[in-house]
Known about the structure:
Order of helices and strands: EHEHEHHHH
Shape: globular
Distance between the termini: 45 Å
Radius of gyration: 16 Å
Number of strands: 3
Helix content: 25-40%
Number of helices: 6
Strand content: 5-15%
Amino acid sequence: MKFSYPCLSNNSDLALALRIARHSSCTACDSCPGLRPPASVEVVLDDDVHQKSLLGDLTQYGSDEEDGSTYLETCICGHDVADHGSQLAALGREEFSRRARLATRLDELYHEAGRQLDFNYADEDIDSLKQQMKLPVSMVSIASPSIRTS
Length: 150
C-alpha cells in the first residue's frame, strides 16, 4: 500500500495537520512519539510541483493506481492524525499555526539531512525542536481521557 506525505511546498491545512501529527506524541496512548507508518506501508512525497516541472503535467493522463495516492492517516500505534495533536478545532488557529510552523521547520531539517521520509530519524536539532511540539498541560487534559482532575 502506498500513501503520501506532503512536500514542503504544500501548506494546506490537511498537509500542516499531517506534519504536526508526525512530530507530536499520540494523545490516545503513552508510547507513541509521533505519527509513524505501519511497516506494510510505503510513503512517498506528494510532490506534484516537482513532477510537473520535470515531465510536464502528467496528471491529465490519470493514474495507474486504483484510488490514486492518499495521505498517510493511521499510525503504527493504531490511532489517526487527529489523535496526534493536530486538530484545528481543538487547538485553535493560533496554536495550530504555531505548531505548523515548528512542524514545517522540522520537516526542513529532515529534508536538509536527506531523511524527509525516514520517520525514525532524529538528531540534536530535531529532538530540541520537538520539545516545543508538546501540547500545553491544559490541552493534554482536554485531549486525553486518561488524565483525571480532582
